[in-house]
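ok here's MucBP domain-containing protein:
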Amino acid sequence: MKQNRKHKFLLFIVVLFMIVPSVNEPFKVFANSNEEELDVSSVENVTQNEAKELAVNSTEQIELLQEKATMDASIDLPNVPNDQENSEEQAVQTPDASELKQLEIQQVEIEKEQKSSVESLDSWMPDKNLQTAVAKTLKITVSELTKEQMQRLGSEASTGQITAKNVASLQGMEYTTGGTGIVLQTTNGTINDLSPIENVRLLQLIITNNDVSNLSPLKGQSLGLLSAENNNISDLSQLNFSNMKILAVDDNHISDLSMVPNYVGMVLARNQKIVNAEIPRNENIKIDSVKHVLNYDFSTKNFSNISNNGLFISNASPYFGSITWENLDLSVSSIQYEFDRQYSFSTDSRKNNKVYYSGVVVQPFSNEIKAAPVTVKYLDEKGTELALSELLTGKVGEAYEATEKIINGWVIKEIHGEARGVYTEEAQEVAYIYERVEGAPVTTYYQDEEGNELAAPELLTGKVGEPYETNGKQVNGWEIIDIPGNANGVYTEEAQEVVYLYERKKAAPITVKYQDVDGNIVEPTIKLAGDIGEPYTVEKKEIEGYSIKEVSGNPVGVFSEEEQEILFIYKKIQEQSANIVVRYQDNWGNKIEEDTIVEGLIGEAYSIESKAIDGYTFKEAKGEIFGLFTKDKQEVTFIYVKDNAKLPITPSYPAKLVTKNSLIPNLDKGKNNKTTFPATGTKQNNSFMIGFIMLAGTILIYYRKKYKKMK
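and the structure:
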């Protein structure tokens, strides 16, 4: 029997480790025939490693596993035959350090996932005031409040009542599923939905000063007290009155208490404000009164303050009646009455089941008279229709409200007629008068092709949709080359730019002349071309032998449409010129006389004659024997032929002045124009004199012969 127990226990251990998720490395259990005890320490070690791998399981599962693994080691194991010991032996290997480290990392990750999966309190109970009240009841902090903690509510006396104020939502109370019942008091809030407490075991519910209208979630509740003063309740038929002792529903809209049973201890339904559905207007009206509880002992107080001479008539059923009006004025829009009834459920004076029911009932009338329409128009200031008109219809006495239309580019300036009013039998008209929205400005620019401003920009303003027109400006020296496409257009809500492009006009030429004081041209005339308005600068020229005397015209200015002339007037520079070397050679190039140096001033005329040389006859001259002195050196060479006999020398070229203009001014200045020949000492003036005498003699002989022929 004992061995059977050992076999069963061994089988239990094997099955246990087959069920539990296996460890990475198998373990060995050694069953020694000489030792009939289980090696508990090895089993404990293995199961602890398994517990690390099974971190996903709950703490209770891990503890249970360890508890099973550490069972009473004193139980004897059955003897195992030696020949089976090796074959049934299972290798036992404990995880190494790296595997343990990996298990620890996995455990940390699992814990992180568990933490991240925890719902935030606000997600299932959003109202902070309710959170605080529930936590206070449970005597915990708000941070400790969980769905599991909610199950403690009502499980003991200290957790049976929740008191809160200014609560907007009861969401989260649906997790209160434990306990024997709670008292929930939440007042002065904005609660409008009782569905979260539909399945909560409630003993009492106090929801004074909220916004509850639907009591159907309380149908399954067995409330001892319901306090729902100052809400929007109009129907009590969904309540379960089986255990109710007090019903307090003051300041609501309840018109029927007939369903309240007579065993309810106290009913407070005062100050009801009841507005019935509209009924057609008529001269004679009859409506049912509010309905009271059944089986009551009627008090002396009754219906009162019935408007428009109405009359209460009790029905055969004493708990309600009717109120009638006769010959009612058709202009009346509503009628009303007040009621205040205090009574007991029974005539038995020993019972104290009181009912307090009071309030006012308003009966509005619908207006069956069809009113004339109200026409709503949308016009500009000139009366032009901007949008389709609208026709409002209704009944006489009903309110109407016309609405404006959004029209792009327009804003309302004024309203003609009454935008709000009531329908009447007369047609009415409402006109919305619009004016255009102020448009964004249009800026006109006047620029050259490089974007340079040629004239001040112009700013045009107007209202959206109105036309605008721009024109190019007359800019001196410029002409328009491009008229923009948006030169004319309409104002919009966005700013616009109009750009006129210009280029310079071609200007008349400027003539630049260079003359001396006598009007002689000393440098070729030039002409300058350019665009109108373009600046020019004319520099004086350096002319050899001349200096500037004066300038006529504007050497600095701008091109214009008119021709311009600039005249630079020069005068000769009176300075020493270079020498003129006069050489005397035979026809073989041999020097036959000392060279002569002729000197003068730049611009002055000179004339050089050959001289008589004994034994030689003048043949020709090389170089300019007359001309003007310049800065450069000049040479004149006279060529002679050797004589066989001495003959008088006749000059080949008479002495004469080159030009009158170049010679006379020099004579007037008293300049010495005489040239001395060093070899003979004869002055050049003698040559001029001889030539002049010969010329005069020739002329005299010519005229004398002519005169004789005439005789």
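+1. The radius of gyration is 68 Å.
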